[in-house]
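Reopening closed ticket. The problem is back. First fold of the pair:
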Amino acid sequence: MLFLFFYEVIRLFLQKSSPNPQPYNGNVNALFKDNDSLVSKIDPRARIVGTVIFAFSVVLSDGLLALCLALLCSFTMACCAKLKLVGTLKKMAAMDAFMLYLILILPFSVPGDSFITLFGFEGSWQGLFKGLIITLKANAVVLMIFAGVSILPANVLGSALTSLKVSHKLIQLLLFTMRYLKVIGDEFQRLRRAMRARAFVLRFNWHSWKSIGYLIGMMIVRSMHRSERVVAAMKCRGYQGQFVSYHPLSWQVMDFWYCVLMSLVCSAIITLNFVGGL
């Protein structure tokens, strides 16, 4: 969620002004709408559990062959979920921009066999390999989350997490974050339009950095005031500390086979770490 939030904030801040700006639609349900794909027919609880087990299997793996298999499985899952190609690639590229820094920095941070010398610093093959491994892990896990969990509507996700006995406080925090990303984005756009109306142009100078600081501070202040109004409105409507979900969930044969398939995939990934040789 933090990744999605910071991605949208950076995108909005660098967005060029237009005579008729499009309304911001930054909530998670707008990023990945549920559809009639094969994945959407699987029970949300099975998808959440399968994604979590897959993520642990990938994160704990270090073999190149195992991670390539994990990335292939994530790509297949994304195709089955019918994710929008351009939108998904943009979000993956935003994450890979951070991974690029790791690939550039780790060769000069990890000792090993040198392959390049730059300004007296030696870059090692081991560091480069470590950066590639981390990049493969991140891409495989994030793409699986996009395909398996991010296409879930907020109410369905809340119902599934409640059924899985997840903490109510954690569920509320997640649902509030999903709901108010759009509100924060709208507020951000209003402040940016006000800055542009006063002829502000973003440059790499002290005045721009001060203006960005004022912008972030004003967003925090307005978010606090809005949260107080939201809490008061919820208490007036009988809110007692947890949401009541009425979304029906039913376990089917397809869900059982999905869990079996994910178990086999995770077992294969773990096994390749010991027999793959890479």
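Second fold of the pair, where the issue appears:
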Amino acid sequence: MTTHSPIHSKNTPLYFELRKDILFQITSITAKSSTFGRRFNFSDLMPIFRLNDNELIFPPPYLAEPGGLLAIGGDLQPERLINAYQNGIFPWFEDQGTFFWYSPDPRCVLFPEEIRIHKSMRSIFNQQKFHYTLDTCFNEVMRHCASSPRSDQEGTWIGEDFIQGYTQLHQLGIAHSVEVWENATLVGGLYGLSFGRIFFGESMFSKVPNASKAGFIQLVTALQKAGFLLVDCQQETNHLLSLGARSIPRETFLDYLQQNPYYRTLIGKWSFCPKEGIQCSPQSS
């Protein structure tokens, strides 16, 4: 029984040695962010695959270059995004209409039972400083994530194509948002995708201190009650490590993905439920 969506390994490879213009372009873009911690080295060069716009297929993740870059091209239509995430691949940014697809090794994840709630955060929950909702304003959460300044990068990878693509997944009941409210004001949040018993986190924002951290803890606590196996955090950050995230080999992460299709995906509109963690209802049109 095939547990993965089809991955095709016969894409025409785009070799950096033959396309120095692409190499310099990618090097320049990637150097803007310290997420992966280093620039590309010529000694690290591996084939980067150009996706076929007419086929929703990806090369195997193990062919990614050392920084995680696997392929360029394609689009963000729902079918391609679903295929990507189910196989451990995600789009990180776009430049002049070209999308860049990653599968980093190692992979940063958080096992829900390992969530770390520090004393300062316990105080915030005890004081009921915030209240939390799910799936009430997905598009607004994405736009806040896009506009939030980040100390480790210039600009944002969340452009209009990203917002449109993930909003379509939200309308399909696959992408979800967490909203953090202070009184009636949206002060924090995050969004991601859910397949089986894995939540794939994408981005978060805070307008006031600790808002996104509180929203993340609220979500992970609910996911644990709902029986989720792990939260995909993609890449290490000090913020995520402080909450209990850790890195595992990509091969181990892909093993979890191979088992994931055996679990039912909670498709629809989510809400927090004290007993089951996550309550799922049909998505309104």
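Update: turned out to be a display glitch only; the data is intact. The helical segments are 20-30, 78-86, 119-126, 138-147, 160-171, 211-225, 238-242, 250-259. The first strand starts at residue 13 and ends at 14. Please close again.
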